[in-house]
Amino acid sequence: MELLWEIAGWAGAVAILTAYLAVSMGWLKAGKGFQTANLFGAVAFIINGTLHEAWPSVVTNVAWFLISAIALYRMRAAAPQPVVPAEEPQVQFPGVPDTTGQLAVVEVLTGSVHGEADVHRAPVECTTAVRPAGVPC
Fold it and tell me: How far is CA 119 from CA 53, 81, 92, 126, in A?
């Protein structure tokens, strides 16, 4: 049974040091993963320290545990709730006219119906009276 407590102590050391290394190197953000590793590491150190009657270590790790537990609780409480849309998003399928009137405006501006140019229309003759100044024919 004593071997189990020793393993717990070493596992705690690995958890805390690995989390600290990962945050320090930029591999992990100081978020939930970091705080969870610290929480479990502190518990393992508390178990090992109690077995060896290393009371300063136990007190330090109780504080370490509480800091991590409070940080995790605050992260959970501050987590944004998922936003549910009031209605389903509108999907525009190719070739299907929309109902917002945008298609009609595009048709008027481009002279096309449903993306096809009006090939039967006579070419517009360019005169200086019709075109704005500075626009070439």
Answer: 93, 54, 26, 18
